[in-house]
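Complex record, two chains
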Amino acid sequence: MKRTDDIKASKLDWLTILVVIALAFAGWLNIYAVIYDTQLDQNIFDLSSNSGKQILWFGISLMVVTLILLMDFRFFDSFAYPIYGTIVILLISVLLFGTVVSGSKSWFELGFVRFQPSEFAKFATALAVAKLLSKPQIKLDKIKTWVPIIIVVSIPAILIILQGDTGSALVFSAFVIVFYREGLSPLLVFVGIMAVSLFVLTLLLGQLYIILAIVVAAVILIITGKRSAKKVRTVLLSAAVTAGVVISVDYVVNNVLQSHQQNRVKAFINPEADPLGYGYNVTQSKIAIGSGGFFGKGFLEGTQTKFDFVPEQSTDFIFCTIGEEHGWIGSFILILLFVTLLLRIIFIAERQKSSFSRIYGYGVASILFFHFAVNIGMTIGLFPVIGIPLPFFSYGGSSLLAFSILIFILLKMDAHRMQVLVH
Amino acid sequence: MKDNRSHIIQITFILIGAVFIVKLFFIQVLDENYRLAAENNVMQRLIEYPYRGMIYDRNKELIVYNKPVYDLMVVPREVVLEDTLSFCGHLNIPRSEFDDKMDKAKSYSWYKPSVFLKQFSNEDFASMQDLLIDYPGFYIIPRTVRAYPYHGMANAFGYIGEISKNQLERDTSRYYRQGDYIGISGLESRYEVPLRGKRGVKYRMVNVRGLEKGSFKEGRLDTIPQIGENLVSTIDINLQEYGETLMKGKVGSVIAIEPSSGEILSFISAPSYDPNLLTGRSYSEYFKSLSTDSLKPLYNRPLMAMYRPGSIFKVVQALVALQEGVITENTRLHCNRAIIACHGLHSYEDLQGAITNSCNPYFVQVSRRMLNQGVSEDTYEDTRIGLEKWRAHVASFGLGAPLGIDLPNEKGGMIPNVPYYDNAYQSKNWKFSNIQSISIGEGENLVVPLQMANFAAIVANRGYYYKPHLIKAIGDQQEPLPEYREKHYTTVDPRYFDVAVEAMAEVVRSGTGQFRAKLNDIEVCGKTGTVQNKDRPDHSVFIAFAPKDDPKIALSVYVEHGGQGARAGAAIAGLMIEKYLKGCTDRSHMEEYVLNGEFLY
């Protein structure tokens, strides 16, 4: 009885819930649009179709969400490490006993239901990172404090890479945003962003030009201004390191990346070079979105997505359906919904009284942001193709359920934020 | 400081969203190319080729029809080939050809079908059909090619083939597209528009695997194909076949015309080829050997081979002279061999006798009278006036310019005019004695066999002709094209023709050797036209028409190097007339003479 009162008393953030429901509902309609065939006239509730199955997952997610809302809000703080541990065990066992689906050994098959532990690793890691960082004695400028953090983030990431799902592993890099908020030196973030930009620039322009630019910049830095041995040393050292990064690009592309990953990089740089080969996905995805025009072709009227020109249309490339059938205006509304959701989560995180829930809130925002930016970015050619879903939108039970858990843990803790001090 | 960082994070989120919205505006609203590419993806343009019109002969025998063949298509995306070599083995092509064709198909489209191998016969199709179940991505679509049940008349029919780049550029109607078939020569080319009909285009939507997904824009852009129109030919296919048999082993032509209509009854060019060879897959193989054959089977002799008209021209001269009033039927002249040599066993002839016995001096004297009528006191000038007057008469017989048959590439022959001689002599100083050989059909005169057959028809009609033509009905329209319904009179009064008819009747009745064209119950009129060759035997030429009163058939026969006109020419003419008028011939000795004679040099 007491707990029900708690829920009644607590204030759930309905704006977030509304946005999430809107996204999920729109996603469901688009999943139906993808499978819709003018000649078959399927029912949107048909349980053998993707749209029907997604309804089932709505139900399951709703049950799990209700369960979360019924639990004690302190549970997640207290059990952050056990939850994380359980997920790590699941990640290991999927490597041993899992089923391979399209090249990744990331799935448990339980009867007719498939279940992907890597999706759940995201909120579990967010919980563990929040737990670690919320320790009062933590100091982010000390190397010592970084060791456990890096371990906590790397374990699931490495296990997921071993499963063959590099895309999902990359999601864990999103925690940089959390670290930045909690005090990571902006210089380090800046250096990181520079390194990535340098990498991409090298791919786009070629090694020779970049190295020339570095040499020229170093010479200018040395001859201008005050000349001291220390300055010359620093400039030369940084120039050497930068040049090293540049020279490593070819090696990384050719030796570290697998061939399909190399192709995705090539397709990103110039999809027109081989529009039927490695550039096919990006080319077709852009054609589908670009053909939508301002108002789109109308619900169920898309041809590119429906006739299978775009690959993975109901999962990773679901945004193409929006772009094609609902045009620029539909895409605009969808992006608006996501940005609203992200800002609202930051707002929620910032109003938390406990640092655990604040850091967790930033974790939620970072993970959602990474999915949003990379997923839509890749469909319009602003990002290499990385196979991760659009949250709440893409077809897929594990992803829907995991994102629901991710966000409702935050909402549950937010509802009880006033009790923290009392406690 | 931390608040500040929260703002930076929020600004980053908004910034990324804004970048997406701007980028989307570029590709969705500003750039048209994506919309076009999307249409190109889903839209499949299906061309429905209508059946090409068929051709019947004058007795409603089918002589050209369409035979089904099958094209092997490939959709590269669907191809799963485990054993390419055995697949090549089934198709009977080398591995390199397979790779070439596959590359070509891929470069066209991965998911749209393109032609892999063309035109399998029905039998090949039967064996392929079972086989293809094991080879996904390959399938077969039906097409048609031309077929000719009578194996003859190739030079009149012509052939069809894929349109060339040149033709495509010259096509002002913008109808044709690359890969379309078009009539390249003969009737197929001349009657291309009614024969081809109008192709239909159907736009439909397909998915990435080429499966149909409904019509494009509810079929608003679709057009329905129109079947090509059938043609009725003037040809009597039995006579045609008979004539082709007679011309076996010879070089030359036989053209028979119905004088009262200008309808061509037979159109034989020898040697020829089986028109079925130039259809379907064998086209390229045979076309090369035909075009390099030293006897030139592709050369359309009735229209293109130019010969001097020889003695036949004396009939023209007689008619023109009568019209000009320089002689009468009764004008008698000495066979003065001081003027020119003569083969006749005579010394003094009237007009009819001069024609019948082909008297050279007679016609040289007559021609001098025509060309030098004393209009001008200057002999040179007088000849010029006379030549132009004469030429106008001769041209009215359809000589010196193409007649306008409904076939391409017709030659006009040559009847010399004043500018021609001015140029030849590089001055105006030429007179009759310089050019007198044209009087007897030698010299610069040139005609094609069709013109000589038409001349026989003119004499048969006593003074007029219809342009010879091969098609008498197009589709529902039960008459030939308008230009073939128009009567053309010569400038010679019909009453003068009787003497020519009588003379030609006499040629067959009593002339030396011309008995080969003589029939027991039908009066045949004819004229030899031996064309002399310097080192090789003469061409045997004969024109004829029959029956003398109310003629039903007029023809010219050319047998190159066949000796005198009285030999192969007359014999073939007689047999053709007999075959056409009686349906058969009882003169098998004459057939043997024609068939076994050594006329091919």
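Note: Chain B is about 35% helix and 15% strand.
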